[in-house]
Write a structure and sequence with these properties.
alpha+beta, arginyl-tRNA--protein transferase activity, N-end_Aminoacyl_Trfase, globular, N-end_Aminoacyl_Trfase_C, 2 domains, 36% helix, transferase, ATE1 transferase
Length: 160
Amino acid sequence: LKVRVVRSSPPSSQFKATFQESYQVYKRYQMVIHKDPPDKPSINQVRLVPVSFEDPQFKSSFNQSATLFAKYQMSVHKDTPSDCGENEFTRFLCDSPLEAEHAPNGPECGYGSFHQQYWLDGKIIAVGVIDILPYCVSSVYLYYDPDFSFLSLGVYSALR
């Protein structure tokens, strides 16, 4: 048995060279030990979308996100349809006091409020509402399609 410590952040050349192999061990572990399905969302299926009606991705996915929010609220929190309509969704998870900012030394996406969308087979199955700030990322809310609760998307989102 040989144990090697490789720097992961910033990624060293050893880390980069062994990433796929390490990932495959991780994926197998998750499937065998934690019974994760092989199609559990991966980083390639997560989109970070600025919360802005000016943003084309946000606008094009708004109805799907609002519908998913209502399904989640009614199933998980037993809200009535009138408690989770489009206006309530917008007020609760789209209107933000944060203004978008793109600092030269900040993240590529900039600072502000975002919807982190989890897509599977062309459909949004979860949305994490997050604020990206200069010294932290704040998780505001997460909602998901109850049909996919077996994926533990809340845990996945928190770890991600």
